[in-house]
Specification:
This protein has about 200 residues and is of the alpha+beta class. The protein folds into three domains: about 1-35; about 45-105, ADC-like domains (N-terminal domain of TfIIb), CATH 2.20.25; about 115-195, no CATH class. About 35% of the residues lie in helices and about 25% in strands. The chain is built from six helices and eight strands; from the N terminus they run H-H-E-E-E-H-H-E-E-H-E-E-H-E. The strands form three sheets. It has a three-stranded antiparallel β-sheet with strand order 1-2-3. Helix 6 (about 175-185) links the parallel strand 7 (about 155-170) and strand 8. It is elongated.
């Protein structure tokens, strides 16, 4: 055989391409405009929001992309999450947990409002944020007033509140962590820790 021989595979490729293009053109349809169209970038109309991954104590930076026109009756929806390339901690990378943040946000079992279970009850009931915050503040004040230790047995001022502990998030900014620490210590809380040690 000479060098101009065409393999069976090449023959099928050439004939199907030629027949397909000629048949479409004969029917009045040309695929060229469709093939030449530039596809819009999926994040082009989104709003970028920088945040911190909530999982561990590494505090990786993330960028959340939400879609919605922000009008009064429209609710934005997060459609994509990725690592923040400008963040000094993770430089755009995310671990498997961080990469699955969108599933965490869209989970049907995710709690979106506070719930309360009364003592002795087996059922949780939905409550308002105002009710929950007021109840927490009331219980904190009651317990602190009841168990606060102003002075130890030697008469030294210690200002301790040992009946309540505080577990803080470690995946926060330095400013938030500093304020959390100051609030817990100003209340006199001795048992103070964060999830980095869990």
């Amino acid at each position: 055989m000479d060098g101009t021989a065409v393999s069976r595979r090449q023959l099928f490729r050439y004939t199907s391409a030629t027949l397909g293009a000629s048949t479409l053109t004969a029917l009045g349809f040309s695929p060229r405009p469709a093939l030449a169209e530039v596809r819009a970038f999926k994040l082009a109309r989104t709003t970028e929001t920088r945040n911190t991954c909530p999982y561990c104590s590494v505090s990786c930076g993330i960028i959340m992309y939400s879609l919605g026109d922000k009008s009064k009756n429209a609710k934005s929806s997060i459609i994509h999450i990725e690592g923040d390339p400008d963040h000094p901690v993770n430089r755009g990378t995310l671990c498997p947990k961080g990469a699955a943040l969108l599933d965490f946000i869209k989970a049907p079992t995710r709690l979106l409002y506070p719930e309360y279970r009364a003592p002795g009850s087996a059922e949780w009931k939905r409550v308002s944020w105002d009710w929950a915050m007021e109840r927490i503040a009331k219980l904190v004040k009651e317990d602190r007033d009841k168990n606060f230790i102003a002075k130890n047995k030697d008469g030294l001022t210690v200002n301790r509140w040992v009946s309540t502990g505080f577990l803080a998030a470690s995946a926060t900014t330095n400013e938030t962590a500093f304020l959390t620490y100051k609030i817990a210590r100003s209340l006199g809380i001795v048992a103070f820790d964060n999830q980095a040690r869990v």
